[in-house]
Design the sequence.
């Protein structure tokens, strides 16, 4: 998506499973970083949550490793290509692998913390997390149309 066609949304418009989110938010509060182990390769990572929002609402933003050090209370960030997910029944904004957060010199006077989307309870259902590739049983040759017997 190019800079000219990027559509920015307000926080109160975010729903579970939203993708390609572009928004501008102010950091209201930062959680304490904690250390977690990766399920894939057992490496240690730092994870933290920041309460971010605008004049329409607020929600938790999940931050990993070096992202944590970039954020501080009172700063305003432009989030590009983010996504929402449900974690432990709570809506979260994520940057993921392809999302970015850039500090901007904009002013968001007051953040609406009364409309905290992360305080609403959601049922964890498939389709609310990041997209996953389906498991393929067929062999490569079969997908090309060259069915072979093994």
Sequence:
């Amino acid at each position: 998506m190019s800079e000219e066609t990027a559509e920015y949304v307000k926080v109160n418009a975010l729903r579970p499973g939203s993708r390609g989110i572009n928004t501008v938010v102010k950091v209201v509060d930062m959680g304490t970083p904690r250390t977690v182990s990766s399920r894939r390769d057992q490496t240690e990572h730092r994870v933290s949550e920041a309460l971010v929002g605008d004049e329409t609402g607020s929600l938790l933003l999940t931050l990993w490793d070096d992202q944590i050090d970039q954020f501080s209370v009172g700063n305003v960030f432009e989030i590009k290509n983010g996504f929402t997910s449900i974690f432990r029944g709570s809506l979260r904004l994520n940057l993921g692998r392809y999302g970015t957060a850039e500090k901007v010199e904009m002013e968001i006077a007051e953040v609406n913390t009364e409309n905290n989307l992360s305080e609403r309870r959601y049922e964890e259902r498939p389709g609310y997390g990041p997209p996953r590739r389906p498991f393929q049983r067929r062999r490569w040759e079969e997908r090309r149309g060259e069915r072979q017997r093994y």
In short: Residues 66-70 form the longest helix (5 residues).
